[in-house]
Amino acid sequence: MASLLEQLKSVTTIVADTGDVGAIRAVKPQDATTNPSLVLKASALPEYAPLIDDAIAYAKAQGGDKAAQIENAADKLAVSIGLEILKVVPGKISTEVDARLSFDKDAMLAKARKLMAGGIQYILSKKDEDGSWSLGNGAFRPAITAMIAKVLAQHGDYGPAHAETTKALDILLKSRQDDGGIYNPS
After folding, report:
1. What is the extent of the structural domain holding 168?
2. Same domain? 44 vs 91
3. I need a labelling partner for 11 at 20 to 30 A (CA). Which of 50, 57, 96, 108 fits?
């Protein structure tokens, strides 16, 4: 007989609400969400020590007073934990911003844009030398490049005319086959 979790998965989408990647691996949800409180709790896990060190180094490099550095480190950590979660969740991940921003629409949107920019910078850092994206092994995957081109085209800071977007689209067009498909023939 199927477990209760398996029965639940058969009738609904399971969404993990945590920053603990180990717990996410155990449950195998479709999607995940997290928030600043869950990120804080997850940051106590030993496997996140390198992410914290990276977030602190990033914040120091950004400069500013201690408050700005703390905010930048927290934002970098939230993005980094989100990227770790994306490695195990096949669907979407969302994060809530600080609840204190709930009544300040402009501040909430600015924070959301800052977090999304961190994700975009990560994506851009994973680009292959030829300007395409792969599974990290250098083997060009048109579908991955197409998804990233779509994200860039729809992003307010990039758009369809941005150099990163047009380069990705050019690479995709060069992969067009005689049958009209865009794929690797090998």
Report:
1. 129-186
2. yes
3. 96
